[in-house]
């Protein structure tokens, strides 16, 4: 898979390193000569250019990319790169970094963004996830379909602890994608039994998050009815 990363700072280089280890072809783009540090990621291609300019993106052959990641420290730049990648070059998947949470509402399909990653929001979500059991934590927002990646740690008092996945009446527009149990990552087959302390990862429509939390949390065990 060919991936272009706009922004060769610490974030962009870190992403590049991870993707290279997984066998992907990486192009790093940055307009600052000081950011071009080929020796730091020698396996990647490097391009000294302004990723907001069509001529630069032509040179980068963006139409050949499967994914574009807008990872600069400037939200305006990330939005422009995302829009150009999607509308001018038809890149199938565009991922954009959100630096200021106040700008998060802009990072949607109107600007060509498929997945918006807000570092401040993700960090605060991980803190919440570390200290909360029974509360739904939003980890990541997907622009298409108004869906989110959410996590909930199943509390011991939950009514569905001990229930098989296939026997739970999940809300519409939600999908259980992974169960993390200790050091194990489990595929949620219908026969898998949910256990207290399981970390459950869902892709869920935002409108269904409250129903999902009610279904899984202590409040249901205390008398809330399932939707």
TrEMBL record:
<dbReference type="InterPro" id="IPR036291">
    <property type="entry name" value="NAD(P)-bd_dom_sf"/>
</dbReference>
<keyword id="KW-0406">Ion transport</keyword>
<dbReference type="InterPro" id="IPR006037">
    <property type="entry name" value="RCK_C"/>
</dbReference>
<dbReference type="InterPro" id="IPR003148">
    <property type="entry name" value="RCK_N"/>
</dbReference>
<dbReference type="GO" id="GO:0034220">
    <property type="term" value="P:monoatomic ion transmembrane transport"/>
</dbReference>
<feature type="domain" description="RCK C-terminal">
    <location>
        <begin position="137"/>
        <end position="218"/>
    </location>
</feature>
<dbReference type="InterPro" id="IPR006036">
    <property type="entry name" value="K_uptake_TrkA"/>
</dbReference>
<keyword id="KW-0813">Transport</keyword>
<keyword id="KW-0630">Potassium</keyword>
<keyword id="KW-0407">Ion channel</keyword>
<feature type="domain" description="RCK N-terminal">
    <location>
        <begin position="1"/>
        <end position="117"/>
    </location>
</feature>
<dbReference type="Pfam" id="PF02080">
    <property type="entry name" value="TrkA_C"/>
</dbReference>
<keyword id="KW-0520">NAD</keyword>
<dbReference type="InterPro" id="IPR036721">
    <property type="entry name" value="RCK_C_sf"/>
</dbReference>
<keyword id="KW-0633">Potassium transport</keyword>
<dbReference type="InterPro" id="IPR050721">
    <property type="entry name" value="Trk_Ktr_HKT_K-transport"/>
</dbReference>
<protein>
    <recommendedName>
        <fullName>Trk system potassium uptake protein TrkA</fullName>
    </recommendedName>
</protein>
<dbReference type="Pfam" id="PF02254">
    <property type="entry name" value="TrkA_N"/>
</dbReference>
